[in-house]
Amino acid sequence: MGKVVIVTGANSGIGLALCERLLTEDARLRLCLACRNMQRAEATRAALLTSHSGASVDLLHLDVGSVRSVLSAAREVKAKYGRIDFLYLNAGIMPNPTVDIKALFRGLFSRNVINMFATAEGLLTQQDSPNSDGLQEVFATNLFGHFLLIRELEPLMCQPGRTSRLIWTSSSNARRSAFSIDDIQHRHGKEPYSSSKYASDMLSLALNKHKNHQGLFSSVTCPGLVMTNLTFGILPSFFWTLIMPIMWLIRIFTNTFTLTPYNGAEALHWLFLQKPESLDPRAKYHSLTSGSGTNYTEPRQMDIDDEISETFYSKLLELEKAIRRKVSERNAENKAYQRYLGEVE
Ligand SMILES: NC(=O)C1=CN([C@@H]2O[C@H](COP(=O)(O)OP(=O)(O)OC[C@H]3O[C@@H](n4cnc5c(N)ncnc54)[C@H](OP(=O)(O)O)[C@@H]3O)[C@@H](O)[C@H]2O)C=CC1
Ligand SMILES: CC(C)=CCC[C@@H](C)[C@H]1CC[C@H]2C3=C(CC[C@]12C)[C@@]1(C)CCC(=O)[C@@H](C)[C@@H]1CC3
């Protein structure tokens, strides 16, 4: 039987390019597109089936930023699949971004220019707010929803005699200084995106420590700078139209300017082909594109403290307990209300 692969945020950008590449690599795949918008998911499925007729492409409704949706999606997965070979944790958001134009111009004329274009360090801030579960939106979407999904699917992914893989789409924008262990949701800062991506790097390391012996392996990737809905949302469209030629020019000198979703999906695709035991849990696998347009993957060491990563993992487990308690209280209240309605009628 073909490998079972689930991709979150599969209906656009890097997630969609990854699906295309995986189906080209292995036609026997059982691919599951986990998306929040079913209309877009249907359209994506139809497009994938046009280029890969006969492929097995399922849809799963998943809003990774909603606890209720994650729990119900996990139930569906458990009922449908006997195992999961790859779970790509790719869905992500960067809401209300602001570019510090002054810092951009200062950076342009400094020695830090290459790093600035590769990581956006010091350039970007975002405004975040709590969602209906009381969690910060960016944290909930980019990290916690995925964590809860992994916890729910552990029985399928930790089976004796098999290995399963988690592959995160992180970012070179992940920065230690943007994350605080005392504010893991980044309620008080202005860089929730950077914090959430750093959090995924730490979680991946902790998961390897706790789950490798059960056959579950986790890796993190950075796709480089890719022109997708997420990037286009950072600045007005006329600006992008103006600077696109400059972006293609910069690409000649900066291998992190992968620019197309196909190129950005390079490391995600490369990891699909690797044996998990051969991978470095402390490395982030970067998609890179040379000036002449050749794609390759390069591991770079992450700046992570083991102790903080462990503490973070414990905090996530505590938060998971609290959230589950809240969900069962809510369910009990609903049931009591339904009973009351039944009695009144
Ligand atoms: N573009 C870049 O330069 C870089 C991107 N990344 C990361 O790559 C990943 C993919 O982003 P990219 O392809 O660029 O951007 P896109 O906006 O094109 O893709 C993001 C995907 O995530 C989905 N998504 C967002 N929120 C949710 C949610 N709550 N539940 C389910 N799905 C959701 C979106 O669905 P919908 O269509 O419904 O919005 C979309 O399919 C992200 O994690 C991003 O942080 C990392 C580094 C660089
Ligand atoms: C080319 C000129 C003159 C201006 C463009 C400046 C910025 C808009 C651009 C510079 C570095 C970019 C960047 C990202 C977004 C757009 C920039 C800030 C990302 C933050 C997109 C999402 C990620 O996760 C990062 C890896 C990107 C890093 C670089």
TrEMBL record:
Domain of life of the source: Eukaryota
Molecular function via GO: 3-beta-hydroxysteroid 3-dehydrogenase (NADP+) activity; 5-alpha-androstane-3-beta,17-beta-diol dehydrogenase (NADP+) activity; estradiol 17-beta-dehydrogenase [NAD(P)+] activity
Summary of subunit composition and partner proteins: Binds to the short form of prolactin receptor.
Keywords: Endoplasmic reticulum, Glycoprotein, Lipid biosynthesis, Lipid metabolism, Membrane, NAD, NADP, Oxidoreductase, Steroid biosynthesis, Transmembrane, Transmembrane helix
Pfam families: adh_short
Similarity section: Belongs to the short-chain dehydrogenases/reductases (SDR) family. ERG27 subfamily.
GO CC annotation terms, alphabetical: endoplasmic reticulum membrane
Membrane topology, as annotated: Single-pass membrane protein
Bilayer-spanning residue ranges: 230-250
Keyword Transcription set for record: no
Catalytically driven reaction(s): 5alpha-cholest-8-en-3-one + NADPH + H(+) = 5alpha-cholest-8-en-3beta-ol + NADP(+); zymosterone + NADPH + H(+) = zymosterol + NADP(+); 4alpha-methyl-5alpha-cholest-8-en-3-one + NADPH + H(+) = 4alpha-methyl-5alpha-cholest-8-en-3beta-ol + NADP(+); a 3beta-hydroxysteroid + NADP(+) = a 3-oxosteroid + NADPH + H(+)
Name of the protein: 3-keto-steroid reductase/17-beta-hydroxysteroid dehydrogenase 7
Entry EC no(s): 1.1.1.210, 1.1.1.270, 1.1.1.62
One GO process term, biological-process aspect: cholesterol biosynthetic process
InterPro entries found in the cross-reference section: 3KSR/17beta-HSD (IPR052834), HSD17B7/Erg27 (IPR042829), NAD(P)-bd_dom_sf (IPR036291), SDR_fam (IPR002347)
Listed pathway(s): Steroid biosynthesis; estrogen biosynthesis; Steroid biosynthesis; zymosterol biosynthesis; zymosterol from lanosterol: step 5/6
Cellular compartment(s): Endoplasmic reticulum membrane
